Structure formats: structure tokens, C-alpha cells
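Methods: holo model generation. Sequences were used as deposited, without trimming of termini or removal of tags, and paired with ligand SMILES retrieved from the corresponding compound records. Each pair was processed once, and we did not select among multiple samples. The sequence and pyridoxal-5'-phosphate SMILES for this entry were:
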Amino acid sequence: MVRMACPNLGEEEKLAVCNVLDSGMIASGSVVKKFEEEFASYCGAEYGIATTSGTTALEIALKSVGIGPGDKVLTTAFSFIASTNAIIYAGAVPEFLDIKKETFNINEEEIETKLAQDSSIKAILVVHLYGRPCNMESIMRVAHKYGVKVIEDCAQAHGASFMGKKVGTFGDAAAFSFYPTKNMTTGEGGMVLTSKEEVAEKASLLINHGMKVRYHHEIIGYNYRMTNIAAAIGLCQLKKLEDNNRKRIRNAQYYIENMINTKLILPELVEGHVYHQFTIRVLERKREELCSYLDEKQIGYSIFYPLSIPEQKCYEGYHFLNEYPNVDEIKQEVLSLPIHPLLTGQDLKEVINAINAF
Ligand SMILES: *Cc1c(COP(=O)(O)O)cnc(C)c1O
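and the model returned the structure below.
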């Protein structure tokens, strides 16, 4: 069986967790602080605020830049549900844009049209889907022109960069996830990054019941604190991130050089992409057939995502527009193949042989 995902955990993580357990300081403390500093510094941001998940990090990022009830937030119609749920948790109203078929990311050219039409939009939440960075040069230029905030969902893009600058450092705030299938993990966990002092301050308050001085609560907050146990794993994982990303990129290159199948469109090799997923498009409505074939060959795969966000059942009552022709096409074509750093040469060959034989 070639597995779809496999967290790369070893003796370092075990030892680090044991050290935390032995210390008796297992909740949020100095290890979390160290992880926040090292992760922020690795990305090139001033501040890191660790949270319980990527989802809570997104919610806190939005609230910390000042998004609240009734505010409109522009986002992509094609992502994991958390990107939009976070907007709803903040009491804000999502407005969706279609994607570009080549990048699977929000169509940045449509952002300006939308902002020009609707001056009540307060922010843009972009997602660097599958590890491919959005065109942040264009997005930030338009955002500045119209005075809207930018939040980056980097849950799938740890270490990815656009024009040499790491994602998570372009917008007003960014959110990362450390779920086990992501490019690095803490079990469950997340992080808000920002280089704005006031945003960092608000985020730190929000994740800890609005408390700076013990039992003095300045605002109504939450308990979204990361534990020292999780942060200890995160510190080890951060050290391996570059190497793991290099392996993902190398695997992607190998697939692209060796997969020859005219019924498929392969992802592009672009600078700064960290291949959280290697997502192909299966043309001529042959995806179901390919899935059965991969099942037979015991090769893992996944479909991210079978539905657009606005058409999800949970949003029935919201009556979102659902006219996103590229998403409607792509959702029926996408198939993600194993790309994680622990794949062996034999695994890669098995995947290539199956794809070419299909
Ligand atoms: C995983 C993911 C999240 C949520 O992260 P969790 O840690 O699972 O809460 C948000 N956005 C995207 C794009 C993701 O892939």
C-alpha cells in the first residue's frame, strides 16, 4: 500500500515530549514561546501566536485584524471548509470568487473588479492551496489600492514562498495548521503570524480569555492555547521542514518528468511551491475509473475537494451564489496522489507505473 500521508516523527520528537512531561509544565509555557519565536523567525514575521488548530488560528487572525459582525470578506470558493467557517465564526459574511484552473487558487484578476464594485468589502482571505503560493504581489497591490485587509490561510503552505518571500508575511495576518497530514505537525495545533504589534497583541489576548494580568479580563476571549507538549513536537518538526519540503518538491519533479498520460493534466513546477498535495486533473470524466484502478493497485489517493464551499450542505440557509464555472469543472477532475517525504523510490515508481498504465 502506498499511503497518502504519513507524519515524519522520530526519536527527537519522543525525547522532546518526554522532557516536557518530566518538567511537569505541560500546558502553555516556555516551550510554546520558543516555538512561536522560532516559527515566526523562520517565516520572516515579527510575531507568532500559537493556537489549538489551523481553524482557531484563522478565526483569531480575522478577529485580530478587526473583522467583525457584518463585515464582508472576499475568499475562494475552493478550499477546505475551515477557510470559510472562520469568517462565519467572526460574524462576518463570506463572498466567494472563482479560481484559476492552472493554479487552483483564487483568481486574483477578479479581486480588483469585485473591490471596485463593492466598497463594503473589508478583507480578502486567500488560501495557498496544495502548497502553491497565490500571486501575492498582485493581491497586495490591489488590497493597498482599496484599503482592505489581507489574511493568508497558509495551512497547506509551510515554507512556501512567492518571489523569494515566505507566505504568511505578505498580509496583515496569516494562519498555519499543524494537523498531522500537513507539511509539519504538532498533533493538533495552529499559529497566527503577523508583523503588526497591535494585531499580535489582540491575538495573544483572544487566545487566552482576554487576559494579560492574571484574572483581569480585558476582552471576551477563548482558551485556544497550545500546550508545551505540542510545541515540543513543533520545534523538532520545524527543524525538518526544509528537508521535508525539498523531498516533496523532488517527488513532484520526478512525477512530472515520468508521468505520461494524455488524459491527465499535471500540476506545474513553480518556484516556491511546497507540494502539500500533488494534485492532477483527470479529464474526460475518467476520475472514478482511475480511483478504482488505484484501489486495485493499492495506491492511496484523495479528492480535495469534491464540492465547492458555497454549495456545502452546512451553508444551505445562507443562500450563497454558486456560479463558479472553474470550481465546478475542477471539483470533478481533481485527484491528489501520494507526495509525502517518506515515500520510497519503489513507492514513486509504483505510482508512476499505475498512472502511465491507466
Ligand atoms: C487544514 C486546513 C485548515 C484547518 O486546519 P486545522 O488545523 O485542521 O483546524 C484550514 N485551511 C486549510 C486550507 C486547511 O487545509
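The pocket of pyridoxal-5'-phosphate is lined by residues 53-55, 79-80, 82-83, 127, 153, 155-156, 177, 179, 190 (CB under 6 Å).
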